[in-house]
Every structure is written in C-alpha cells, then in structure tokens.
Amino acid sequence: MSSNSSIITDFHKRRIYFKELKYYADMVENEKNLVSDTQNTFEFFIHNVDTFQGENVIISLSILRKLDYKISQDVGIDNTVDDFMKLYHYNDKISELKKLPRFLIHVNEFTYIIKMEDEILLFYQVLNNLERRSSFVKSCPIHTHNLENYYIILLESGTKNYIGYKYGVLDILNEEYESYKQGYDSVAKDIILYGFDYIQKMIGLRKIGDLIISDSEELRQLMSIIKSIERYYVLIQSGKKSLKPLSIVVFGPPGSGKSFKVKNIVRYFASNKKLEDKGIYTINVSQLNSVEDFYEKLAAMDDENPGIKFVFIDEFDAAYEGEPRGWLKYYLSIMEDGEYPSPHNEIQNHSGGNMRKINNCVLFFAGATSTSFKNFFPKTKEELLTFQNIKGTDFVSRIKGALDIISLNQNNLEDKSYIIRRAIVLRSALEEYARDILDDNNKARISDALIDAFLYASSYKNEARSLMNIVMTSNIYDNYYSISSIPDVRQLALHIDAENFYSLIDSNLKRRFGQNDK
Fold first, then answer.
1. b/e string for 337-354 if b means 16 or more Cβ within 10 A?
2. Residue by residue, what is the 3-state secondary structure of 356-424?
3. CB-side neighbour CA atoms (13 Å) of 443
C-alpha cells in the first residue's frame, strides 16, 4: 500500500462528505433515483446515461451481480471495491458511469462508493461481528448513524489513478494502520497494552470467532473457505447423498498455527450454524508406519454421524517409504470418491467390496514441506516430472480451497504489518498465560522495553509457538512483566536470537532513560 494513507482525517472534509452521504440517504428513503434491478431498465439507463447528468443516481452492486458482472462478495471489501473499479475503468458499459458527475454505489449496508465531481470516495464502517451478513434489500438503506465510526478513503481524484491498480488490490487494513496515531508501531503497542476490544473501536481488526485477522489477503482466504464449507453444508442439508469430501490445503511455516486456525474455522462455522462443535479428527501421517495405519485412523472415525465431519491431515506431504511426498497418491480416491480400502480387507456391507465410504467430510491437508501453496508447486521441468510421478498434479486438481498462514517474521522490507501479527500473538499469550498482569481495565502491565523486543526481534525460530513459549516460561512476579521476567539466555535462545533480543531491550532503555528498567 502507499506509504501515505488515503484515509480522510480532516474534520472539515469529512463533514462535507458526510453531508453528501446524508443527502443520498434521504433520496433512498423517498425511493428516488434508484436504478431498477431488471436488465431492460439497467440497459436503458446505461444507453441513456447522458440524460441523467443532473441526477444523483444510486445503484446497488447486487443489481450488477444479477446481471452477471463479476463482483466478489463476502471475501473482503478490498476485493469487492477493486472489482467494481476495474469495471468502472475497463468495462464498456459500466465505464459509461464516468459521464455522470455524481453517483452512489451501494456495496452493502455499511459500505458505499460515492462520486463527487472529480473525486471517488469509499465510505465504510467496520463491523466487529463478521457473522452479520450484508443485506441487499430493495430499498438499499444507507446508514448515517455513528458517522464518526465511518472510514473515508479517497480512491480517485482528478487524473490520479485508482490506487488499487497501482498496488494490485486495495488494502483497507494497511490504510487503517497507517492512519492510526503514529502508524503501525502505535497499533501494535495498543493491541498489547489494551487488547482487541479496545483497538477495534479505533481500527478495523477483523475477527472470525476467536481469530483476530490483521492481513487483508488472509481475511479473503479465510472467508472464501468458510463460504465453501457453508455451501457444502447446504448440499448436505438438501439430502444429497454420498458427497465427495471438500478438500482444503493449509500452508505456513512450522509453528505458525495451522491447526489453531483450522480449529477456529470449524468452531466459527459450528457456532454460526448453531451446530454442536464436535472438534476435528487429527491424523499426522508422518507418525504412521504404513498406509494401512492411515486407513485404520480413518475407519476409527464415526462414519455413522449423518452430519458434517472435519479431518485434519497433518504433514500430508511427508515422505513415505523413502519417496518425497509419497503419501499424495493415497489421498486421491478419498478426495475424488470419498472411498478408501478397508483396513485388513475388512468387508463393509454399506460400501460394497473392500472399500469404505467417508461421506459429508471436510478434509484439511496441512503441509510441512512448503510454507505456501505457491511454493508447493514445482519450479523446474525436472521437478515437474517428479511432481507428476508422485501424483502431485492429480492431488492439486482435487483441491477446492487454500489457506496460506503468514509468517510471524518479516517477509520483506515492505512488510510493515509483521509487528501487528506479533502483537496479536503476544496479547493472546498474555491473556492465556499471564492474566495477573492485566489490571481491572484489561490493560497489560508490561515493560515498554520488553514490548519493543517482542515486536522487533529479528525472527522467531518456530513462529507463534516460539513467542508463546517465551511468555509461558517467563517468571512473572508482582503482577508486572519486566525484563527480569524473561527466561535465561539458554532457554531464550531455543526460540529467538537472544543477543538481538537483549540489544533491542538495551536500545529502548537508553533511548528512554539511559538506565535499566525494572
């Protein structure tokens, strides 16, 4: 994202823009200038757009979706806005809107795109509860209460290009971080000190169940997976029998929390559908001696359960019998037909032959040899040939969703939000293992020097697991997390570069006091 935030913070400008939003709200209430959702009416409007020059036109994105314009939904406002702006600039029909000096695009009940002469603005209000679904009702309500909670982002001004095209995809979260106090550092420290409920009043950290999401791309992937599971569940509810499993891959560095994320996805889904959370059945294939052991693990599941089941296959890409990623070929019949050989050739009457059925099941495949889905693929012709021989291409063709868990470490010099990711994990660790340092207002009593060390450490050897272990093994006393509380150097070195960690502490103390902290 741009180093200069495009969020409008100037009080007088916001006042002018909100006056415009209220004007549109009054029009909607009186059902004025709403473009109908029939194709003929919309086509008439587009072909005669010149006659609407003096009007304030209102169009709902739901109308464009009904007319088969490709605009994403429920996978992040960033993508939705980007999709519309691409149509606005490059689609022959939608680009006719450029002739209008003013219009409002109704994205959802708390998100709008407004054109005012030579400016295009995005108005959006962060909803703390993602379980609320956008509702596109006929009257397209425009909410003008709690205006102070709305963000306004300048998408386009005069001849300035739409920012989304310059940077790939509009990243609202990064915009919010940059606009907050002194930027990323302030966001990270306030997360640690005050917790998620406090910071959500200031910026839009997204929450899915117990998951706090700080990255727009991860949010899009998570929401896409949740929508896939919900659609799969609808098919189960409709009575469709013998549904092949829904296969999803999960990648991330060791210790990044793959199983934690998946468990929370399942918990969120169960809560949203008011289902009993029966958890996840976990199989780590690297700990198995044979493929028959794998089939026995599957058979141990309750196949009589008529509801939806979740299986977490850990280290799915481990070697088997000396062959790298040798397990892949044994997943194919399960993914494609929901079938696998019965252990010890035990004949199952309900499945026929010596094959067992695994119906109504979501399979999560957690990788161990690659940190991302992209890196799972071969890079050379030789690697491609090997990949094909181990049935890698067949495996990938059966995948219906992918989740890449972002490293807790800095990915590149442009990655500023890594300290936000670390702050989220640290705050979670404090709430779980060091609740005594939280005061009556839920503020953490922790050394500022220690915060700096946790946030800016060169790297965590085992990602989130390392950070959590440091907190868990700290000797906290007097309800205060000081630099004296952290584990000894040898233990600290198991998880982090101890010398770098202490140098960050020293730099902080010299900068602030020229002396040691408590």
1. ebbbbbbeeeeeeebeee
2. EECCCEEEEEECCCCCCHHHHCCCCHHHHHHHHHCCHHHHHHCCCEEEECCCCCCCCCCCCCHHHHHHH
3. 4
Q: What is the pLDDT of residues 167-208, one digit of tens each?
A: 334 555 666 666 555 678 888 999 999 998 777 666 656 778
Buried/exposed code over 90-125 (b: 16+ C-beta within 10 A; e: otherwise): eeeebebbeebebbbbbbbbbbbbbbeeebbbbbbb
The packing angle between helices 463-472 and 418-433, to 10°, is 40
Q: Please tell us whether the domain made up of 216-404 is placed in CATH 3.40.50.300.
A: yes
- Quick check: 270 and 194 in contact, CB under 8 A? no
Residues of the chain below pLDDT 70: 1-5, 9, 28-40, 74-76, 126-149, 158-182, 200-205, 242, 302-306, 344-353, 514-518
Distance CA 355, CA 500 (A): 56
Q: What is the tens place of the pLDDT at every residue in 377-401?
A: 999 999 999 999 999 999 999 999 9
Return the SS3 of 480: strand
Sign of CA dihedral 446, 474, 442, 211: positive
Domain ranges for the chain = 11-179, 184-213+410-512, 216-404
